[in-house]
Structures are given as structure tokens and as C-alpha cells.
Amino acid sequence: MSELKTVALSIDLSVIINKELISKGMRRSDIKSFDKSFTNFCEYELQAITELCITNCYDISELINLPNLKKLHIKSADYNKLAPSIDYRESYVINHIQDFSVIAGLTSLEELVIANDLYVKSLDISKLSNLKKLILINNPNLNELIGLDDLKNLNEVTMYGNNITKYGMSNEENGITYPQDFDFDKYSTNTRYCVENTLDISMYLSIIKNSRGIAKHLADNQIAGKSFVRFAEKSGFLNCVCLALVDLYDLYSKLDVYFNKVGAYKKSDYEKIELVYNYIINNTKFNKELIVDRNIQYLVDKEQFDDIPDKVRKLFNSFHSSYYAYRFKEANCEGRVNLMVFMLEMLGIHAHNVHCHDNRSENVGSNHSVVRVKINDEYKYIDASLFESYKEKEKKKEILSKFSCKDMGDFSRLFFLADYDFMCNFVTFDAYEESLNPIKNDKTYII
Fold first, then answer.
1. For the chain, what is the domain count?
2. Which pTM value belongs to this model?
3. CATH number of the domain that residue 371 is part of
């Protein structure tokens, strides 16, 4: 009798696959993880794997050996909530995958979820014609998504907390390549019957190409019932807040008129930041009562309904959005931050919504939102709600020049930043690790 053909896999992927086989009742006799044969799998075992949830993995290139894989979840712990001074190189609660190119060949996939991944930069899903569910959340370095507008079987799409502005390259006959555009009309047609259709807010400006005309076209499609796509901003309450195309057109077009009027597009980066910051603090009110009333009503409804319907839940965090802050001239800290991020991105300055802990607060855990910008290859942090106690304009002006744009070290005296932000500020992991010692011993960093 011929010997069964086996495939050798890496130890970390073997542990995950072995666990999945056990859940299917396919125990691999008495093989232990320290046995040499532990990483060898028969073809029928690999063919039995239809879904995987991956955490603490370094390499997924061997997933190509799973021909019937339909559900793939690649999940890490939320980097905003990890314990301080964690070593990202060794942490078992996050993935360490450097190459995601294998996903392009997993043509049997029907469901793909990637969450809280610090390393994924590009995804090619153009050949995943069977894909029905796509969830990409809190992947801060995900900058390129190829082929989304080609997929025709999607039933659920949710994206937020990413940085998607590129869609691959097009090959021309003369050998020159150009950046590929995202065909929003085609995507809207392909996903008309999606039960959930939410794209990342980072995609919006690249889709409309800084054109009020295109922004209006998208809004008109929504009004005509041709598009049901929304765009989502990151939110510390219920994860994200969604914006309709008509609201985004209103927001973008009016800000564009304002920026042209004041010559914002021609200013230096620092001048742009100061302009946007002054606009935020002078035109939006920080309304603490919104938060208090929302929290009370949320708890009342939660006690009454036990499980609050999603549509009702999303009403509770509307004032976390950029549009609410702009339209109603009031918001919480995150509403101001999301508006500031949107405005800065319009002006060509890359900005992020960063969750942190305000050390002046008695509350525990993440309770505040600030802006992270990159200027001259350095990260700076801006608190859009820092000067609420300063009522006089001259005092605000004086404080603004001193505190509006702080580096990581100075900013951490007031706010406890997630360890991921410390990592962002160093070119290498070695420099990052060396920085941890003084931070651990500095009481100003302790919540």
C-alpha cells in the first residue's frame, strides 16, 4: 500500500490548522506539537480546512495549500488597547505577517476579514470572484486595495480605520504604468444589493479626485437610488460612524469654497495646520452634554432591549462624525478630530484619528481622541479640544503657538498614547525598544 503524501507547513500555521482539525473531530492520533511529524499534513486533512482564524502568525504563504478555504479571518488585538510597553516583535496577540500576496491566489474565498493588522500594506483581491463578505478594519498601514470594483458577488462590505488611497497600477501598451482609478460607478452597480456597504473614509478624496463635480455625481447617484454606499470614520464609541454621500458632498464642497477663499491650498504645511486648527476651535463647540445624554440613553435602551439593533446603535455616535461637527457646529472630541483629519487630508496633509487616555481625567482607559500628522518625516500630535478652558481669543492665540503641534515626548506628558504610536515614531524596532526604558520609569506616562 502506497504511503500517504504529506505537505510540511510552518509550526505557527500548523498549530492553527491542527486546532481547526480538532474542532472538526479530526484528531491526528497522538501527535504532539514537539513531534517532527506535527507539521506534516495529509492532503485530505488540508482539503478539509474550509475556514481559519489566524492570530500570532508570521507567514501565511502556505495557505495556498488549502484548496477549499472559504473563510479567512486574520485578526490581531486592538493596538489602541494593548498594554503599555508591549514588545510588538514577540507579542502573541497580534500577527506579524509581512507578505499578504498569497491572498490573491485564494480563489475559493467567500469571506475575508483582516482586523487590527499593523503590517498589511497592500491587498490584491481582483481574482476573488467568489468573495461575498469583506471586512477590513483598523489596519493603519493598508494603503493599497486592488480589484474591489471588479467583484460582483459581494453581499457585505465594511471598512474603516485604514488608509486606502491607491488601487493598483494599469499597464499601458507603451510599457508605461499609471495609477489605477477606483471605478465607483461600477462598484456601486456590483454591490447594489449588499446588506452592508461601507467604505473607508480614506478612499473618498481619492475617488472624487479633488473635484466638486465628481462629489456631486456621487451624491446625485444616492438621491436617484443608484448607489447605497456610505463612508465610515473611526469612532471610539461603537467602532465607526457612517456618512452618506449627500452629506459628504455638502461637507467637501463648502470646505473647498472656504479653502479657496482663504488661499489654504497655497499655504505651507504648518500654516495649513494652524488654519484648520483655528477653524475647529472657533467654529465648533465642545459639547459635553451630548456625551452625558447619549450615555444615559444608551444604558436605558440597552437595559430595555438587551441587544440594541444596529440601526439604533449607530444613532448614538453621530456626533463623533466630521459632518456633525461641521453641520451643527458642536461635537465631542472625536467629532472635532474627524473634521480636522478630513480638512487636513483635503489640504494634502496625511492625518490620523488617534485614541488615547487624557491623564487629567479620572476615568480609566481610552477616553480621548487626538490628531496625528506627519510633517517633514516627523509625527506631531494635536489636541483639537485642548483650549476649552481658554475663553479669551488672545489667550487662545498665545497657547496655540506653544502647544498646537507637539512631538511625541511632550504630548505624552498630558496624554497616554497607545504603544503603537511610540513605535510609529522610530525608524527601527531597535530604536523603539531603546526608547521604552525611560518611558517605563517616567511616572508622567502612567494612567
1. 1
2. 0.86
3. 3.10.620
